[in-house]
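ok so heres the complex, two chains, lmk if somethin looks off
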Amino acid sequence: VYRLHGRYHEMAPNVVPMDYTKDPDVKLPMQLIINMPELKENPFKERIVESFSEDGEGSLSFNDFVDMFSVLSEMAPRELKAIYAFKIYDFNTDNFICKSDLEQTLNKLTREELTAEEITLVCEKVIEEADMDGDGKLGFADFENMISKAPDFLSTFHIRI
Amino acid sequence: KDKEEDESKEEDSSSPQNRASRSKNYQRKNSNGKRAGEERRRQRGKKAPTKDQKESENEGRKTSKKGKEGENKQKKDRKTSTSSGSSNSSDEESLSEEELAMLMEQVEQKKKLISAMRNKPWRMVKKLSVLREAQAFVEKFEGALGKGKGKKLYAYKMMMAKKWVKFKRDFDNFKTQCIPWEMKIKEVESHFGSSVASYFIFLRWMYGVNLVLFGLIFGLVIIPEVLMGMPYGSMPRKTVPRAEQATAMDFSVLWDFEGYIKYSALFYGYYNNQRTIGWLKYRLPMAYFMVGISVFGYSLMVVIRSMARNANENTADGDDVNFIFSWKMFTSWDYLIGNPETADNKFASITTSFKESIVDEQESNKDENIHLRRFLRVLANVLIICCLCGSGYLIYFVVKRSQTFSKMQNVGWYERNEVEIVMSLLGMFCPPLFETIAALENYHPRIGLKWQLGRIFALFLGNLYTFLLALMDDVNEKLAEEDVVKNITRWTLLGHHNSSLGNGSMATPPPLDPADVPRGPCWETTVGIEFVRLTVSDILVTFITILVGDFIRACFVRFVNYCWCWDLEAGFPSYAEFDISGNVLGLVFNQGMIWMGSFYAPGLVGINVLRLLTSMYFQCWAVMSSNVPHERVFKASKSNNFYMGLLLLILFLSLLPVAYTIMSLPPSFDCGPFSGKKRMYEVIQETIELDFPLFVAKIFSYVANPGLIIPAILLMVLAIYYLNAVAEAYQRANAELKKKMQMQREEEKNKRNNKASTNPALQDLEDLFTQSTKSESHPKRAEDKKIESPNQPSPVRTQGRAAALDGSPRTGGRGAAFVPLSHVFVTQPPTLGIWPPYPGQPRPRGQPMGPVPGRGRGQP
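and the predicted structre for the whole thing:
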């Protein structure tokens, strides 16, 4: 945890205090966090930071910061990771991964190299594969069901710090 | 809501006295605290949360335990009846008892909450505050919970428990800090992805294993001999023979591991066969033998444990085909990547992979010319087998030649090292050859990789075993020589005695200078030397390959690119990619050689430890400076077990030669800890006879009786067969479950699209049940049993949690989709607010279809 605090501190040395006994309310803005080397190349960095932030705006207090890295670490249990993964991929935060969310995910993953029809095809296939209750979008149940069978979810959804 | 439930239950069993007060829930507490365990079970059934936040958690987590409430209630009844006597105590006492009990329950709940805090997806702030509150509560009341006399003891126990927990946590923290090279590996990982990093993690693990082995050998064999054994020069076996003394310090001789090194503690020949040495009476030969065996035992244990751990992580095997696109979308991005170049590569590879899948999805399978493909594959395999045989023969030939060389006098450097050079060259050039031939086969890349690895493995194995066979010839020759030398030695000693006795006095003759005693050929030391030389040359070749193949190449490409005709970076040489499989195989084979040679050359493991250490730093540097990330960035998930499997195989294969020599070859008569015995394992018999009390020897002689061993082996075979059968049964049950889920999913999809059911059996069922009523509260029906049993295997019922949900979402076909998902549900609180829609909503579906799956599941 000390290391984490060190990292947190060095991002904004003038703002972050070393002493937390008085429980200060310090938040770092999203821009700073996105520029961390671990997150810089990640296409979902904004979503990651947003889903861990208290106020939904993307500013992380130290608690949120620790939270984020603990979920993304090796030791976090699978269910916990699945919950947060769902939040991350849910771009419009409606607690469902709908088609537009999928499209955005796909675009971020491929940097918009696929044609529009390819995109629609892929999104449709995903919904067809994973949607259990037939509402045309992925609820948390569907997502969890699908991701619990994925063999490499744990190893890819992991940041080492 | 739960509290009212409990209260209503309690009312039945409560005695008339305390009906009014709320603490009825906790009445009839015993004063001896022995039933704390049962109380806890009761608490689980009751779950009376003191905070609102916990209700959601309890609902989520403990709905599964509703089933247990029934039995808890019974237990409570029993307890109330038995302890009704104690309730007649004064009001004051019973009140404080109840209070205490209530407190105890709350403390238990808080403790459980604390331990499960990790799994909650709450915000950090919330977690922290709840945690602090819970901890404060526990601290405040814990001390007060000890009852009467046991109070102090109880408090003490609690304190010790807390201290122990704290100690464990500190120790874990310390351990994580201690893991070496974590930062380095992370750097490599972020640049090259998780598959390259997996090689380094494997290297680190090997380093750990080798370190332990080295510690064993060094501490138990080398140190005692050096400290307490006879010093250098005191015995024939420990001194350089006079003939060689002139050249013993030459570097070329030392490089060949002759000269002083040959007669040092690094090799087998140095050790004395004295039964006990030093004032500790340390039994060196016994220790040598046991350490040799335990090296293999420990390695075996460690490899198997690691394999089991990996196997646990690969849970779902089948069901691959169902989620291809979803998995691609959600799990293909490797979050560890932190380098723009790698990220670019990853994006490109993801895009191509999507495109490939789309193409696969769209077009039907091409009608390939199967015959041509088969012919090509057979041809490729034939070619490769030819290559393998050729290389095997080459090695045999070369080793034979080196034996004739060793008899000659003037041997050049090349002749001396021919064997090692040839083996290294083969190892360098054959794999690319295999790859080019494999292009004929046209396999899927992952399968192709496995074939390639298998072939390289066969190549190395063939080489190693040919080498061993040639070595065995050598050994047999030496054994034959020994007899001759024995006679010579005896005569020399006699001659020396006679000459020094002179006029027949009975005085003891001056001892012969150890360097002058004619020495027998010490075949074990020779074998040890061979292995050490092989290892060293392997190390050198690896390092040089990396240096030249990667670094020089990179420099060349970088600097000469300016004045070259074609673009070097994109064209022919370009930068090297990190060859994961080649490196892993090299590591695995190196380890195999170490295992084989460590019995005859105890210092070999030390050399290996040094090698792994330097290799770690060297390769990290090389990778970062001169390699580029792979073009096809593929994941490292399942290959881990494959490498472990290879390691296991090599372990067995290297155990065989050592076991053979121990069992069937006589040790040399004048060197090593077993000299003078007929077989090496006789040292065990000796120890048992002489050192242990008499009955131990008798026990061992009984145990070694074939009449006992054969039935034991039979028993083990039977056990293996039984376990196999059980495993198969589980697999079958698994497959049936999957089929069932598959069917349900299809049902859902069909219903969604309002199509007719694809499964004719289900269609029939549908018609059959149009008339019958569908009362969900009575899932158990005889007719259902008859019809449903072929379709619905009972293993579903064994999901105890699914059973708990029988009552609620039985409405409509929703139940069908529910049960497989429910077991995942009960582990999480519905923080995302998704729960409310499901249980309450009865899907307005075709009613006949609805209860069918549901009832099936309701069967016991």
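quick notes: The two ends of chain B are 29 Å apart (CA to CA). thats all i got rn
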